[in-house]
Specification:
Length: 345
């Protein structure tokens, strides 16, 4: 039995079995026949070659789709994302991590406001036997079956709480979280989740999802870039450019530093204002965690606007992985210790 944490996000899909992490852009495209497969130079940082055949459809996934597919698929619509993207994006890392026919137990997450609506649908999509074909970079095909025996879906930001609270064996390692009231701001690509874990119990009053994900800042950057260059750059193609602070279009380099800082500052202020308003009656929150891939970049802009004690992010921490690590640890607690469901489920 393999326990896997799976975080299917609008920006990136992340999965881990505790030893290995797979992270790729949540983009896929129709696979085409590659006329030349040899790599001109070796690249130690080469991304995973993700090429699958599922239900008689051939897919390139992640960076491979961005580089090779003529038709690429990417969405920020939650219903479309669950119905049309989940299966491909989930089976891609599972096919790389799990031996053929080995039973898999999954923990995955959903944004808080979409949890009740999409939980059963997500379980139905993921659970069961999934025959597929794995195609490697040499074009060699391997028939396989991913067998998902159990799926547990939790409110998304609780992954971060579980990551901090539990050890790799699923044991409680930091008992402070058993007695504290923690506010969590999870900034994803499309959404931001706000929730309160009051001595590990979910607070409905203090929880909601908004559409103020980091993609809102990216859309602002893309609009400014289109004004100056005339090119409409897809949001998922801006990730590296925003990190670098510049992008080259038709040989001309465009500086993104000022528009990036303005967009991030505006978004961070809005997210902090929403949190302060939502938690106005929860003045007894002990600490606030800022997590998610968007949280890492917005935290410096958000701290001056946010009320309460903010937990610092340790240097070198990839906050994109906080939830998926927590999902995996929670799965270990549920299934390898024989634990029963807790009130955070």
């Amino acid at each position: 039995m393999e326990v896997i944490g799976l975080d299917i996000g609008f920006g990136y899909t992340k999965a881990t079995n505790g030893q290995r992490f797979i992270v790729f852009k949540s983009v896929y495209g129709e696979a085409s026949e590659l006329q030349f497969r040899e790599q001109l130079l070796s690249d130690p940082d080469e991304e995973e070659y993700l090429h699958l055949e599922i239900d008689d459809h051939n897919y390139f996934v992640g960076e491979l789709a961005e580089r090779q597919s003529v038709e690429r698929y990417f969405t920020l619509d939650q219903s479309q994302f669950v119905a049309e993207f989940t299966k491909v994006l989930a089976l891609t890392p599972l096919s790389q991590m799990v031996e053929r026919q080995e039973p898999v137990k999954l923990v995955a997450g959903l944004p808080i406001s979409h949890y009740r609506r999409h939980r059963s649908e997500l379980i139905n999509i993921l659970k069961g036997q999934h025959p597929l074909v794995i195609i490697n970079k040499n074009g060699e095909r391997e028939d396989s079956v991913v067998r998902v025996s159990d799926v547990k879906v939790v409110p998304q930001p609780f992954g971060t709480v579980m990551n901090l609270m539990l050890s790799d064996l699923g044991e409680v390692r930091d008992r402070r979280f058993l007695g504290e009231k923690i506010g969590v701001i999870d900034v994803g690509f499309r959404t931001t989740d706000y929730t309160i874990a009051d001595r590990t119990r979910y607070s409905e009053r203090g929880s909601k999802t908004t559409d103020t994900g980091i993609s809102r800042a990216y859309a602002t950057i893309a609009a400014k870039l289109q004004e100056s260059s005339g090119i409409n750059v897809e949001l998922y193609r801006l990730y590296n450019a925003v990190d670098r602070g510049s992008i080259k279009i038709h040989g001309k380099r465009y500086d993104l530093k000022l528009v990036k800082e303005h967009a991030f500052s505006q978004l961070a202020s809005q997210i902090a204002t929403d949190a302060n308003r939502l938690w106005a009656n929860d003045w007894d929150i002990d600490r606030v965690m800022i997590t998610g891939g968007g949280g890492a970049v917005l935290a410096p802009f958000m701290s001056s606007h946010l009320k309460g004690e903010i937990m610092p992010v340790e240097p070198g921490t990839d906050t994109r992985l906080n939830n998926v690590r927590g999902y995996w640890k929670y799965g270990k607690r549920l299934w390898t210790r024989g634990a029963t469901a807790t009130q955070t489920e």
